[in-house]
Amino acid sequence: MVDAQLGHALAALAPTHLALAAAIAGASPALNWITYDSYPPDQIGAAFRNAHAFASLIGTQAPYFAADFDFGLFLVAPHVLYRDHCHAAPELYAPLTGPHGWRFGVDRPLVLKPAHDPVWNDPFRPHLTKVGPTPFLAFFGWTRDVNEPASVLPATDWPALEALIL
Question: Which of 34, 76, 89, 123 could join 136 in a cystine, given CB atoms 3.0 to 4.6 angstroms apart?
Fold first, then answer.
């Protein structure tokens, strides 16, 4: 997934942040890109499960160690829905690409956001992300409770959101 999508995301980032795009491209082969597999597959959906990856830069399993903290890169393929979920960890996203859709509550309206518009999620705040035509690439930060699992929150409109093209 990373090999197929990261280049497209970096091509979208490069016109405004060439040095950052080059640094991520150069570092990517040395990063440990993994998928978050703690969600039940039938709840998170096959599309997300197979179309995302993250690489921690600072954390317990990262090149730079920090206890109970995680900071890194998050990548999701175009048009994928990251279904409603929540977790104990407070979370910051610093999106490097866009547009993408967000909502902050099950069955609430989707809000479109451009690249470089940060998103903060308080602990246990329900949130969902719908990726647009460009792969979603963001820095993420979890500032505590990083070992607590995330939970999927069922919603009635997932089929419509999965079919939606931003």
Answer: 76
Distance separating alpha carbons of residues 151 and 128, to the nearest angstrom? 12
> What are the domain boundaries of the chain?
2-163
What does the pLDDT look like over 58-99, one tens digit per residue? 999 999 999 999 999 999 999 999 999 999 999 999 999 999
**13: enclosing H helix or E strand:** helix 2-13
User: Which residues contact residue 80 at a Cβ distance below 8 angstroms, ignoring those fewer than 6 apart?
Assistant: 47, 48, 51, 52, 130, 131, 136
Beta strands in the chain (DSSP E): 52-59, 64-65, 70-76, 81-86, 91-95, 100-103, 111-113, 119-121, 127-131, 136-142, 151-152
Helix (H, G, I), strand (E, B) or coil at 52: strand
Question: pLDDT tens digit string along 129-164?
Answer: 999 999 999 999 999 999 999 999 999 999 999 999
Dihedral angle of Cα 135, 138, 143, 147, to the nearest 10 degrees? 30
Nearest to 120 by CA among 134, 139, 137: 139
